[in-house]
Every structure is written in C-alpha cells, then in structure tokens.
Specification:
The chain is mainly alpha-helical and 101 residues long. Helices cover 33% and strands 8% of the residues. 14% of the residues are buried.
C-alpha cells in the first residue's frame, strides 16, 4: 500500500505501536489467514491487519498476517472498493468533423 495521499496513518490510535506488538505476541508472530480449504497459512507474520475494514482498532478486530497474505487481502479489498464506486463516463462526446465547423 502506498501511504502517499492517505490519511490512514493519522487515523491510527496514539498507542498503535503497543497494540501492534500485543497482537503479534498474541498470535505468536504467525499468519492467521485462513484459506478457502480451511487451513491456516501459519507463515511467520510481521504485519497487523484489521479483520473488518475501518477504524476499529480493538484487538478482537486485529490479526497478524504475513506480507504475502496481507498484500493479497489488501488488493482484494481495494478491488472490491473500486467495483463499488460508480464508474466514470469513459467515452467522450463525439467531436464535430473539422470540415463541418
């Protein structure tokens, strides 16, 4: 994720670093992502993710993910958000032919 132009970091609580470490320790520094097969990734994890999108920073809404699973989850959420937005008009008004001006 690019932080440029984002206010996400400013919306984190003042004690985010402490919350982050607590979640990592609670999860044993292991990725908690559950695959469609029902298996857990279990790879070493160093990133703390919000389970439900938004600004709920409660530990019950936070989980440890590995970089790969976090990137996949974030990309999926971004694609979902793009699909939810109304599409901009993609066609221009036809230009008049220069000979008919």
């Amino acid at each position: 994720m690019t932080w440029e132009g984002s206010d996400r970091r400013a919306r984190l609580p003042h004690d985010w670093a402490l919350r982050r470490v607590r979640v990592l320790r609670r999860d044993g520094y292991r990725c908690r992502q559950v695959f469609t097969t029902g298996e857990r990734c279990g790879a070493p994890g160093s990133e703390v993710d919000h389970i439900e999108r938004g600004d709920n920073h409660d530990p019950t809404n936070l989980q440890t993910l590995c970089a790969h699973c976090h990137a996949r989850k974030t990309a999926g959420e971004a694609a979902e958000a793009r699909r939810a937005r109304p599409r901009a008009q993609r066609t221009r008004e036809p230009e008049r032919h220069p000979g008919s001006l």
